[in-house]
Amino acid sequence: MRQVSDDRNISVKRDECTSKYRFLIFSSHATAAPVATTQATIAVSGAGRDATVYRCIEASVIEQWLMHCGWAYEWNGGGHGEAIVEARRALTRWVDLGLACAQAEQGVRLFDPAEVLNFVKMAGRSGKDSLWQERFVETYRNLVREFHSGKHPSDPPAQPSVLPPRRFRVRLSRQFNLDGIEPGRRLLLRLPVPVEDRGLRELKISSIASTTTKAEISRAAGRLEWRLTARDERSITLSADYAFTANPTVGDPEGDQLTAEMMDLYTRPSEGLIEVSSRIAALANRIVGPDPDCWRRLRRIWDFILDNLTFGIVHYDQIGTANPSEWVLDNGVCDCQLGCALLISLCRSLKIPARLASGYLLYSVAANGHYWAEIFIAGRGWVPVDLGCWELSTGGQHEGWRNYFFGSLDYRLKTEILPRHFTGLSTIRLGAAWQILHLPIIGGAETRFLSLETGRLIYCDRLVILQQDANDV
User: In the Cβ-directed half-sphere of 350, how many Cα atoms lie within 13 Å?
Assistant: First the structure.
């Protein structure tokens, strides 16, 4: 049981969240050969795939990804050689501990990124390897501290709500792979555009470009659109520069008031990954108890998720036709999107309006895509919560970091507020099964979506921080 803000204890049945990830079994003997492995890729009955199918990413690419997770500052600062050596040593060490891999021709090792990351976190939590805490968690904390530079931030720094406005100029590009697209086919390709709200103002769009010259370009709500006819290009890249003033995201007590229509929209029981079932409703009631205060109810749901789930990478094809939130409870693992979907489902079952938001972090060396939630609390407005605190707090264990993004966020480039504000689908879409990798680039990050069947790129996003005003705006 965990103590919550009003000194009441939450008691929830442990079988509500039974995790295949919760335990690692290692030999107590000091042998070089692995004696047991984690099942870090979820095996779901009826999913039609076993873990070996996902082991398709070469070790050299995994090493780059590890550098982004744990050596982002060193890599951007010119220490690429040392970073790659450390990442390579870590990967070898994890294989010795039991991390599974496959072998391609000429002895090249192949890994599943989800299996790697989930293994590393559980090895860290079990005390068998400290790199997750020392490198991954500490890098994330340094990213957060970045906006407090020059102010000798504490550990953790002051709440995001105290950050002053800051001017940014960024370049967002999206590359689509056109392999397999027949010449003459009509294509619709989209690039996200930032949402203007209290967290992002004075947006200016410039340098709209693409690698094709024959396209009709238009702007719609939440996106730029290119309509064109496929020719013989192997790929097309779209890009635009966005300049804006960013503010920390906080609630707005005097902001939007919910109409009856909005109340129905943001409490509806089914929306994409958000599904309110009788099981979810019963769990929500056990978590919050009889207390009618919505703010304290939200805090108890937040604590339940941080205490009972492991955050890692999920293969979405494994979910199948299951209720996504119930699947998360059954497996005990989620990513930022599924974790937020569960939190929102629990809130909506209690008639607390909640919605899913997404966009990009604006850290100088890790401008990754990300999801968070926004909850409407009377007297506070739309309040943001970011479950990235699980990682910042080393799995919910560090009290100072545990609630850092509960109620306020640092600078973000928000592109979607579902279900009304969204980028929408392009002609080039993700298939049923795919891999995702965040890789380092100078001044930002690249996110690749790769086909599981072919290993080819489907599309990738690159966000580069071109300029940010370190002085108060």
Answer: 29
Tens of pLDDT, residues 106-129: 889 999 999 999 999 999 999 999
- Whether residues 40 and 115 share a domain: the answer is yes
Residue 128 maps to a domain: yes
- Domain extent at residue 443: 163-247+422-468
Task: Examine residue 338 and state whether it is found in any structural domain, yes or no.
Answer: no
Two tokens, residue 402: 């545990």
CA 379 to chain centre: 29
- Spatial distance between the Cα atoms of 277 and 342, rounded to a whole number of angstroms: 11
3-state secondary structure of 331: helix
| Unique residue bearing structure tokens 């965040």 | 438
**Residue 341 domain-assigned?**
no
- Which candidate, 117, 97, 79, places its Cα nearest to that of 33? 97
Confidence class for position 424, pLDDT limits 50, 70, 90: confident
User: CA angle, 15 as apex, 14 and 16 as ends, to 5°?
Assistant: 90
φ, ψ at 441 (rounded to 5°) = -135, 155
Query: How many residues belong to the chain?
Result: 473
Q: What are phi and psi of 464, to 5 degrees?
A: -120, 130
CA distance 423 to 413: 13
Element containing residue 210 per DSSP (H, E): strand 200-210
Query: Which segments of 138-188 does DSSP mark as H helices, in order?
Result: 138-145
Burial of 257 (0-12, 13-18, 19+ CB in 10 A): exposed
* 428-448 pLDDT, tens digit each: 888 778 999 999 999 999 999
129 and 53 both lie in a single domain: yes
Is residue 194, in this structure, part of any structural domain at all?
Answer: yes
130 Cβ contact list (under 8 Å, min separation 6): 124
Q: What is the pLDDT of residue 363?
A: 96
Alpha-carbon gap, residue 356 to 175, rounded angstroms: 25
